[in-house]
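User: I would dearly like some help making sense of a protein record. This is the protein in question:
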Amino acid sequence: MGTVLFQQPPRRDLHDTVGHAIATITIQSAAALRLLDRNPQRSRAALEAIRGTGRAALAEMRATLGVLHCRKR
């Protein structure tokens, strides 16, 4: 008997990735706004985390869309 590997469909993976990234960005941006005046360094760290999360989500989205595009051919 062969081994069966479970893999989420790429669309579901994209939904999960982007949804998690948006939630993280929302929480981090709220923290950055609260810290802006009283602790600019921590606010900056939150903004850098937002940038990193956004970049990672975009890279994941591009990779997933590339897989979807290849499957259509």
User: Anything to note?
Assistant: Residues 40-72 form the longest helix (33 residues). Helices lie at 10-35, 40-72. Residues 19-72 form one domain.
